TrEMBL record:
InterPro entries recorded: RidA, RutC-like_sf, YjgF/YER057c/UK114
Domain of life: Eukaryota
Family: Belongs to the RutC family.
Species in which this protein is naturally found: Cylindrodendrum hubeiense
One cellular component (GO) term of this entry: cytosol
Protein's name in the database: Uncharacterized protein
Stored PANTHER family: 2-IMINOBUTANOATE/2-IMINOPROPANOATE DEAMINASE RIDA (PTHR11803), PROTEIN HMF1-RELATED (PTHR11803:SF58)
């Protein structure tokens, strides 16, 4: 099996000595967890979970593009949120990007906390 790592400056740098933004292997792109960081400052953007979800999806889109894929090729999404009271707001943004009959499979779980005290993290798997 051959694999290659993906790093792009169009998405936040994810501690490159610990993990890459994504790994491509066997025709799949495995994106590491993304949080709502601004790529130019590597700081969490201001705003609520809707703003954070938009930023994360923009970051994931940039990573997938660097790998030769796109949001349309996502087959599995895992979402981690710190408060299920935000579930409907998350979904309001989610359906702007993922709709129709070609939806990826999805898991959403509540967790105690996330890096940088943020409220949401998303990881995914896409095809090339």
């Amino acid at each position: 099996m051959s694999k290659r790592t993906i790093i792009t400056n169009k998405a936040p740098n994810p501690m490159p000595y610990v993990f890459p933004q994504a790994v491509v292997a066997n025709g799949l792109v495995f994106c590491s967890g993304s949080i709502a960081m601004d790529p130019s400052t590597c700081e969490i953007i201001l705003g609520d979970i809707k703003d954070h979800t938009h930023q994360i999806i923009k970051n994931i889109s940039a990573i997938l593009e660097a790998a030769g894929s796109s949001l349309d090729n996502i087959v599995k999404i895992n979402i981690f949120i710190t408060d299920f009271a935000n579930f409907s707001q998350l979904n309001e943004v989610y359906v702007q990007y993922f709709k129709g009959s070609n939806l990826p499979s999805r898991t959403c779980v509540a967790v105690k906390e996330l890096p940088f005290d943020t409220d949401i993290e998303i990881e995914c798997i896409a095809t090339l």
